[in-house]
UniProtKB/TrEMBL annotation, chain A:
Signal sequence, renumbered to the chain: none
Membrane disposition: Multi-pass membrane protein
TM regions (residue ranges): 22-53, 65-85, 92-110, 130-149
Keywords per UniProt: Membrane, Transmembrane, Transmembrane helix
GO cellular component entries: plasma membrane
PANTHER family reported in the protein's UniProt record: PROTEIN ABCI12, CHLOROPLASTIC
Protein name: Biotin transport system permease protein
Species of the source: Rhizobium giardinii
Any Pfam family: CbiQ
Cell compartments where the protein resides: Membrane
From TrEMBL, chain B:
Originating organism: Rhizobium giardinii
Organismal lineage: Bacteria, Pseudomonadati, Pseudomonadota, Alphaproteobacteria, Hyphomicrobiales
GO molecular function list: ATP binding; ATP hydrolysis activity; ATPase-coupled transmembrane transporter activity
Signal peptide residue numbers: none
Entry EC number(s): 3.6.3.-
PANTHER family in the record: ENERGY-COUPLING FACTOR TRANSPORTER ATP-BINDING PROTEIN ECFA1, HEAVY METAL TRANSPORTER
InterPro entries: AAA+_ATPase, ABC_transporter-like_ATP-bd, ABC_transpr_CbiO/EcfA_su, ECF_ABC_transporter_ATP-bd, P-loop_NTPase
Superkingdom classification of source: Bacteria
UniProt-recorded name of the protein: Biotin transport system ATP-binding protein
Keyword field: ATP-binding, Hydrolase, Nucleotide-binding, Transport
Residues in ABC transporter domain copies: 3-226
One annotated Gene Ontology cellular component of this protein: ATP-binding cassette (ABC) transporter complex
Automatic annotation (TrEMBL), chain C:
Main location: membrane
Protein name: Biotin transporter
Residues passing through the membrane, by range: 57-81, 87-107, 119-140, 163-183
Coiled-coil region: none
rRNA processing recorded as keyword: no
Subcellular location: Cell membrane
Superkingdom: Bacteria
Keywords associated with the record: Cell membrane, Membrane, Transmembrane, Transmembrane helix, Transport
Gene Ontology cellular-component annotations: plasma membrane
Family as reported in the entry's similarity comment: Belongs to the BioY family.
A GO MF label: biotin transmembrane transporter activity
Length: 207, 226, 187
């Protein structure tokens, strides 16, 4: 039901490791806020746009993904132009758009699987300290994707049942039954996970 | 297979769910019957250590279910009543592969074993399918595959045909018949276990019948009809 | 963390995703349509508590960051987190934790229904509105250059809708507490 937003390709960004891409995004995300000169921000924007539109996304796809963010940004920047200054709004525009475009490029060139694997790897130090189980991330991620369709079916079943009884379908009457019906299964699912030996303590893991 | 119960009982607070039992299970096909609440499910869960005995002990091939928890889980796979709750990854082959991931196996070895088990149970064509789209019988087979792929010698199945239509029931019945592994099956579906070597009958937390399938099932049927 | 807790967290994250698939409701007097998903913070904190609720949102944010279109309207990806509303998205995690903390402290067995509703409502307002906006608004201000006071004034338009959400969430949380209690609370 849920497909990731990445696209196939072999651009340099595709081949870059997830860690590097995220690190660059993080550094850029902080660094660009130290610059207010358009001589820095405009080129950054142009570069980011260039990278974004050469990831393999069709122009239509690329633009439609930006629509929601762009909409919010434009509205807010109009406010900024009016309440602060046009200059500030312009700076903010190029800076924000540079970051948003680069972030969009990272998403377009990174599979969800690789992303989650990277998060798991990043948690290894904490795993060794016994604070978290890094493998839980992958497990939890799989569980979410596994059960979203089932829960959606529950929702539709509850809606139909309401309609059949002539009840108006309102969030109030649907939320509680949906949540209870879903969370009730937690115990048996947890038992099945334990029975498969998935969350054994570290010492036990080399079987 | 050598499963031993030594004075094993289960109590939750004041309530004794299973009276002390001492017996040995070695047969290849064992059925477990009884009314709901009779203790049969608790008994089955004692075998792979999902439930720990309050008194006494349970061992599987020399491994104690309390001390050697991990090894027992590896030796005895448990297939739950509702396969929907058992499959935790969205795509069939992902769920089956997941069981092998934490074992330090190389990717191509994992692929090989997953492919082998899919072929074994006749569901190779379902490898890339989304779990929620499968029929009851297909889901059950995926659940069985995901347990079998890790190589337990013993399979415990809890009401495997409970929610299946006639055709899917046949499918599971044939699958269980064809298993190389030892199978211990809890079932209300009596025809499923009719030809098993041994059937244990539980009632009110006590073992009230233990013998070859035909006799024990007949006694159970008679008692149920009174 | 027990396996059961892990499963509860993951299932709740899945619920939040499904909430995003429910069409938004437009009510006459409220300028922005109400999405079921926007009640997620309040629901998570009030139903599964502070720690599990916050983790459910950590997982949800990871899903968004991983590029899955799970935000209502089929949106997702790092771009949205980088954008002006990013503070709200990350703020969900903290807001849920605060909602949960308050709910866990204020809700008790044996309270009458008005008091329980009030407890959930207060938890939802403080966590899901006050704390959330306290984190989200500065981010809007920083990324767009709009002065914070103006961002705050602009946000006032959303408050009536948010209060309604808090009421709905409180009622739902109460119904779940009766049907299948999961909130760690005082007996």
């Amino acid at each position: 039901m849920l497909n990731g937003l990445n696209v196939e390709g072999s651009t340099p960004l595709h081949r870059m490791s997830v860690r590097t891409k995220l690190a660059i995004l993080l550094v850029l995300g902080v660094a660009l806020y130290f610059f207010s000169s358009l001589f820095v921000l405009v080129p950054a924007f142009v570069l980011a746009a260039g990278i974004y539109f050469t990831t393999g996304l069709t122009v239509r796809d690329g633009l439609s993904r930006l629509k929601p963010v762009l909409f919010t940004i434009v509205i807010l920047l109009i406010a900024t132009a009016y309440l602060a200054s046009i200059r500030e709004a312009t700076e903010a525009f190029f800076r924000l758009m540079a970051l948003v475009l680069f972030a969009g490029a990272v998403t377009a060139t990174t599979t969800t699987g690789d992303f989650i694997d990277e998060i798991t790897r990043l948690l290894q130090p904490l795993d060794r300290l016994g604070l978290v189980r890094a493998a839980d991330v992958g497990l939890a991620f799989g569980l979410v994707l596994r059960f979203v369709p089932d829960i959606f079916n529950h929702y539709q079943a509850i809606r139909e049942a309401h309609r059949a009884r002539g009840l108006k379908v309102r969030p109030l009457t649907i939320l509680a039954p949906l949540i209870i019906l879903t969370l009730k299964d937690a115990d048996t699912i947890a038992m099945a996970i334990d029975a498969r030996g998935f969350r054994r303590p570290r010492s036990d893991r080399n079987r | 297979m050598d499963i031993r119960f030594s004075g094993a009982s289960v109590s939750f607070g004041e309530r004794t769910v299973l009276q002390p039992l001492t017996l040995t299970l070695t047969e290849r096909r064992i059925g477990i019957i009884g009314l709901n609440g009779s203790g049969k499910t608790t008994f089955a869960r004692l075998i792979n250590g999902l439930v720990k005995p309050t008194t006494g002990s349970v061992s599987v091939n020399g491994l104690d279910t309390v001390r050697d928890e991990g090894a027992v889980l590896a030796a005895a796979g448990f297939i739950f009543q509702n396969p929907q709750h058992q499959i935790i990854m969205p795509i069939v082959h992902e769920d089956i592969a997941f069981g092998l991931k934490n074992r330090g196996l190389k990717t191509d070895e994992i692929e090989r074993r997953v492919a082998a088990v899919l072929v074994r149970f006749g569901i190779a064509h379902l490898a890339k399918r989304r779990v929620h789209e499968l029929s009851g019988g297909e889901t059950q087979l995926v659940a069985i595959s995901s347990i079998v792929v890790t190589g337990p010698g013993i399979l415990i199945l809890d009401e495997p045909t409970n929610q299946l239509d006639l055709r899917n029931r046949r499918l599971i019945e044939n699958t269980i018949a064809g298993l190389d592994e030892h199978a211990i099956v809890i079932s209300h579906d009596l025809p499923l276990i009719e030809r098993f070597e041994r059937v244990l009958w539980f009632h009110d937390g006590k073992l009230v019948g233990d013998g070859p399938a035909p006799e024990t099932i007949r006694a159970y049927r008679e008692a149920a009809e009174c | 963390m027990t396996t059961r807790d892990l499963v509860l967290v993951a299932l709740f994250t899945a619920i939040i995703v499904v909430l995003g698939l429910i069409p938004p409701i437009t009510l006459g007097f409220i300028p922005v349509p109400i999405t079921a998903q926007s009640m997620g913070v309040m629901l998570a904190g009030c139903i599964i508590g502070a720690k599990r609720g916050a983790l459910a949102y950590v997982l949800f944010v990871l899903l968004v960051a991983a590029g899955l279109p799970v935000l209502s309207g089929g949106r997702g990806g790092l771009a949205i987190i980088q954008g002006p509303t990013g503070g709200f998205i990350l703020g969900w995690i903290v807001a849920t934790y605060v909602t949960g903390l308050i709910a866990e402290r204020l809700v008790k067995d044996g309270q009458n229904e008005i008091r329980q509703f009030a407890a959930f409502f207060i938890a939802s307002v403080v966590g899901g509105i006050v704390v959330l906006y306290a984190i989200g608004m500065p981010w809007v201000s920083m990324t767009t250059g709009a002065p914070l006071t103006d961002v705050a004034t602009g946000s006032l338009a959303f408050i009536p809708g948010d209060l309604l959400k808090a009421a709905i969430a409180a009622l739902a949380a109460r119904a779940v507490l009766i049907g299948y209690p999961l909130l760690p609370h005082r007996a």
